[in-house]
Amino acid sequence: MRVLVTGASGMLGFALADSCPSNIECVGTDVDTLDITDAVAVGEAFARQSPAAVINAAAYTDVDGCESHESEALAVNGAAAGVLAAACSDAGIPLLHVSTDYVFDGTIPAPGEYSEVDPVGPVSAYGRTKLAGETAVRERLPEHWIVRTQWLYGCHGKNFVETMLRLASERDELAVVDDQVGSPTSTHVLAPFLWRMVAERPAFGTYHVTGGGACSWHGFAEEIFRQAGLLPGSLTLSTMGSDQLDRPAPRPARSVLSNAKLRAALGEAPGPWVEGLQDYMSRRQAVGART
Ligand SMILES: NC(=O)c1ccc[n+]([C@@H]2O[C@H](COP(=O)([O-])OP(=O)(O)OC[C@H]3O[C@@H](n4cnc5c(N)ncnc54)[C@H](OP(=O)(O)O)[C@@H]3O)[C@@H](O)[C@H]2O)c1
Quick one: pLDDT at residue 287? Predict the structure, then answer.
């Protein structure tokens, strides 16, 4: 089975190529080879490759940048998702479209988790554009899996783990926000589940797929430093509020997603996020050892 993957040079795209099962041929494309906002180019790529399914991992992911460039972000995250869905509909093939917890407003009280049917309400431009993508896919193609995930990190991408480790190498004291709660998700854990969905074809619709359990960014940082052997140690880690960061885009305060539907469909869901982090820490060491 040949599967066309868009956004293949991105963080999730890399993990998808890395974990592609041997019975699937992964054809990776990115904006330099297939700009998904270009409907003609998308049609030509489909004609050339005759894929049996498509995974859309391409997106405009600069959350703060979206606030001042919403129309550019909407073209990629919204309209282009519709272009891919229409092309899949013409070709009679399914689309797995990757979305985000940022479609929710984050006001669910603890210890609640959002299910796939909970009302959406994005609080940022990024969230609005990703929601537009979901809507475009649903309108054009019943044969879709929309997979919402969150707090992604993985090899070959700018991510929170690498930022924390870099900052810890530069400073003795660090403050990290503790008023946003979510589930850290390794792309290396997520990607195999996306391949399973394409191969095993659970019922079409929307699914949440994240690392198991939840924490604040501060809790995530603490575990990163513990696993890196920096805590306990000379590093001092303290908490701060999101308002102190003064970022252009507001973030949902609590956007923990329930994996229950995925578990019912595939008989399995990602393990605890702490284990995903352990796996990532060994991967980054292996990559470092090779370079
Ligand atoms: N990162 C997270 O924390 C997170 C959380 C929840 C959901 N997600 C979703 O997960 C998916 C993958 O995210 P990621 O973190 O892997 O993002 P990423 O590293 O930014 O990868 C996205 C890729 O898409 C490419 N792209 C941008 N515009 C394109 C276009 N017009 N045509 C084709 N490709 C284009 C980007 O190229 P350039 O780099 O050249 O722009 C990049 O290679 C996205 O749908 C994202 O919304 C991410």
Answer: 77
Q: What pLDDT score was predicted for residue 248?
A: 96
CA of 231 to the centre of ligand 1 (A): 32
* Ligand 1, atom 31: closest residue by C-alpha: 35
Query: Of the residues 14, 27, 29, 30, which should be mutated to test ligand 1's pocket, given the most ligand atoms within 8 Å of the CB?
Result: 30
Which residue has its alpha carbon closest to ligand 1 atom 42?
10
List, by residue number, the catalytic residues: 126
Mean pLDDT, the chain cut into blocks of 10 residues (291 residues total)? 98 98 98 98 98 98 98 98 98 98 98 98 98 98 98 95 97 96 98 98 98 98 97 94 94 97 98 98 80 44
Tell me, using a 6 A CB cutoff, whether residue 76 lines ligand 1: yes
Per-residue model confidence (pLDDT) at position 256: 98
Q: Indicate if ligand 1 lies below 6 Å from the C-beta of 258.
A: no
Which residue has the CA at smallest separation from atom 29 of ligand 1?
31
What are the helix (H) ranges across the chain? Answer: 11-18, 39-49, 63-68, 70-74, 80-91, 125-140, 160-170, 187-200, 217-227, 260-266, 273-290
pLDDT value at position 286?
A: 85
Residues 6+ apart with CB under 8 A from 44: none
Give the CATH number of domain 2-158+183-212+256-271: 3.40.50.720
Supply the pLDDT for residue 291. 44
Query: How many whole angstroms from 172 Cα to the centroid of ligand 1?
Result: 33
Strand (E) or helix (H) holding 149: strand 144-149
